[in-house]
Design goal:
Elements lengths: L6 E7 L6 H12 L6 E7 L3 H6 L7 E4 L2 E2 L23 H11 L1
Parallel strand pairs: 1-2
Antiparallel strand pairs: 1-3, 3-4
Helix pairs in contact: 1-3
Length: about 100
């Protein structure tokens, strides 16, 4: 029996971050045509303990197969904070291209 492993696409976020809903929307659009090949999850970070356990990089964080989209290292100090993207949030096209490279 041949089984194909799905690509892991996870968004870590917390309520109150103004960019979380936009990132979620962009990722959903980017994977709309390939949902059957993707294990998509939205992970709500509600406590410092969970943030610590998951090495939370800030909200929103996009992880593809466990790797940070921006290749940001795991932080040494964890906090429930919004994440800064120097070039702005990844575009739908950038997300789609990265995912397609890994499929």
């Amino acid at each position: 029996m041949i089984t194909s492993k799905k690509l892991s696409v996870h968004i870590q976020y917390f309520n109150g971050c103004p960019h979380s809903s936009e990132m979620i929307q962009r990722v959903k659009i980017a994977i709309a045509d390939i949902e059957d090949k993707v294990d998509y999850k939205e992970i709500l970070i509600e406590t410092n303990e969970l943030a610590e356990k998951l090495k939370f990089r800030g909200s929103p964080t996009l992880l593809i197969n466990g790797e940070d989209f921006e290749m940001q290292e795991e932080p040494s100090s964890i906090s429930l904070s919004c994440r800064y993207y120097p070039k702005g949030l990844p575009t739908i096209e950038d997300i789609r291209k990265r995912i397609e490279k890994l499929l």
